[in-house]
Queue: 2 jobs
Job 1
Amino acid sequence: MRELIISTGNEGKYKEIVSTLGDTFDRYYSLGDFDEKVVVEEDSPLYFENAMKKARKVGDRFNMATLADDSGLEIEALGGKPGVLSARYGIDDKDRIERVLQELNGVPWEKRGAVFKAYIALYMPDKGWVYIFYGQIKGFIGFEAKGDLGFGYDPIFYIPQLGKYLAELEMETKNRISHRGKALNAMKEFLNADFFIRSRKR
Ligand code: ITT
């Protein structure tokens, strides 16, 4: 039985991760499934280090394969901000969106380019190994929020190829093209190969 803990306190992320991984694992656990709360300080300026920390600390505590995601939104006109501090750019999603729109006040369309980045860490406590997978999606920050699906900055992230905001996409569509979806699909491909090689050795 292949079991996986998803080490995130963000419900939006959790749902997207479980939905993208599908039957890659037999059973998924959220942090809410454990009585003990493990506190992880995200103190690195690098996404991959924070992702590793979140996966390792929880995986070691509960002795189970653990996945963590560290992600963020980088906006060209803001010199890459909010970046690794995306979750701390305000008190809630609405507040964070308002701050970004405010800071981009007067910035023309062509300078509103942005990228969402996701680093997925997969930790195997039995081996002590951490694998890192990366995905990104480019777009633009709109002049106002649109759509009510997804989470976080989705209502202000516009994808020109689709003519839509991320918050206007059903989860399945978002997962196919998003930063997180791409990183998770790379992980799925890697695990498929890994399971295949191991089963051939038997
Ligand atoms: P965990 O650390 O517990 O996983 P978190 O929300 O604090 O949850 P991060 O530190 O990785 O996660 O911060 C990422 C922030 O970037 C997140 O809070 C969102 O505001 C934003 N973000 C990341 N992916 C996003 C997405 O797909 N859509 C919208 N916003 C996203």
Job 2
Amino acid sequence: MAEHIITVTTPSSTYECHVGAGILSEVGAIARSSAGGSLACIVSDSNVAPLYADAIQASLEEAGYQVFTTTFPAGEASKSFQTLAGILEAIATFGLTRDDIVVALGGGVTGDMGGLAAALYLRGIRVVQVPTSLLAMVDSSVGGKTAIDIPQGKNLVGAFWQPSAVVADVRCFQTISPALFRDSCGEVIKHAVLADPALFSRLEQTPLTTPGIPEDELACVVARNIEIKRDVVDADEKEQGLRQTLNLGHTIGHAVEAASNFQLGHGTCVAIGLCSMARAAAAKGWCTQETADRISSLVRLHGLPTDTTLDHGTILRFASHDKKRHGTGVNIVVPAEIGEVRLHKASLAELAGLIDLGCGTEASR
Ligand code: GLY
């Protein structure tokens, strides 16, 4: 199968994202050519390290690196100052210098932890992202956002730190639970609604959750998702404008996620947010009812929910505390048609109206 290579070019750096099946063995050579250095520290978690750290270590050693590994307990609770400090101390103990590299091996939490540790250590060393979950491949490993959570909110402390390379091997999906894979499909559908009617139709024909879906289909879809994200990040690395469109589905989605105390998966909540905003947009005449219905149908095809039973006051309370809030309003992203969205600055009163129109209304249709 051909390997897909997508080049990201931001004002701060240019790097390649490699997508394929069975390409973990290339991590060493890709790190060597994109990041250089002598020492490599693999940062991974307690779930992923036992599966893939040996293979990555062998590949890095073959490329001439001396390799160290540091792991932390899997889970969102590890996105903390405490875990970050442990990783930084491990990197320092291993003696990495400014020329050496971090290899972040795992899902979204690991990408954040490895990326942020690399951004901070010696005021910044290179990082190669090796995402192993669908969500990390199509979203968090690309674009340089890294962060930890604090009690006041998720992702409130972080840095933009672009990787030197991304290596996404879709064969890693073999070790992901079907529930986690399905959850990530919410972000894939979001990208299709945002920018690509052809990808949307492709997902309608062959949902990513189709049993026995070929690896080359998965790799094509992951590569297309990275291209969509690349196009946004190239134009707006630091989220001054266009990058906000990646928050499609997130205003209501984040609120549902926070209200569930993060028990519901992120992609699942994005799917709920996307469908709810599409229903509200259709009611306002901002998109057609057919567009809203197609979005909900595709979400359902992937086994994800399209609505929430939360009361509207709770949704509004969490949505208005979101960190994406700007001044007295919230920048919301509204689907106009499949492949086209608009940014809209809504007052909190207007947001309340959209929540009334879009949430808890699926059953009544
Ligand atoms: N996940 C949204 C972004 O990277 O901007």
